[in-house]
Design goal:
The protein is α+β, with helices and mostly antiparallel strands and about 180 residues long. It is built from three helices and seven strands. The protein folds into two domains: about 35 residues; about 120 residues, Beta Barrel (OB fold (Dihydrolipoamide Acetyltransferase, E2P)), CATH 2.40.50.140. It has a five-stranded mixed barrel.
């Protein structure tokens, strides 16, 4: 075998291997990003929801999931609730307080929140219980309108606030409602 031919063959094999690894990584990561990332949600409009936890769900990584049965009658917009310290910048708190109530077709929504390590740092160190009060402001998923991701939520009878964004600002500052 000629040395140049052998080197070209090794380069092709290496290039093919790298391409295969990149393709596999894309396939494995894409569904998670589409499902869990903020870009998968309608960040043009914050929505307020309220109701009761209606499933044990999953408390863990990469995100915790559970269902909330919505109240049959929601106020027009977000009631006055304590805003977590991290979201008290007027650019964020005004938007959270101005979020209009959910008007979609579902009586129950699947809720996706940060994993326990993150939620625990901001005030929720345990799984929510079936029947527990839950209020939130967040976004509806773009492709699954039964999936909701809060930027902030309040739980229990004491309306304990829990920040759900990395850092101190909303992932996208939606326009204020008219």
């Amino acid at each position: 075998m000629h040395i140049a031919t052998g080197i070209r063959g090794l380069r092709r094999l290496a290039t093919s291997g790298i391409a295969a690894v990149i393709s596999l990584a894309t396939v494995l990561v894409s569904p998670a990003v589409a499902h869990h990332g903020w870009p998968g949600f309608d960040t043009d409009r914050l929505v307020y929801i309220a109701g009761s936890v209606s499933s044990d769900g999953t408390w863990g990584n990469p995100h915790s999931l559970f269902h909330v049965t919505l109240d049959s009658s929601l106020p027009a917009d977000t009631p006055e609730l304590a805003i977590p310290e991290q979201l008290q910048d007027p650019e964020d708190s005004i938007r959270v307080n101005a979020a209009l109530s959910y008007k979609g077709p579902h009586k129950e929504l699947e809720i996706i929140i940060a994993p326990p390590a993150w939620s625990g740092r901001w005030g929720l160190g345990r799984a929510l219980k079936v029947g527990e009060r839950f209020q939130a402001v967040g976004y509806i998923n773009r492709t699954d309108d039964g999936l909701f991701r809060p930027v902030v939520f309040w739980y229990g009878d004491d309306n304990v606030p829990v920040n759900q964004v990395l850092g101190n600002t909303l992932p996208v500052r939606a326009p204020l409602p008219n």
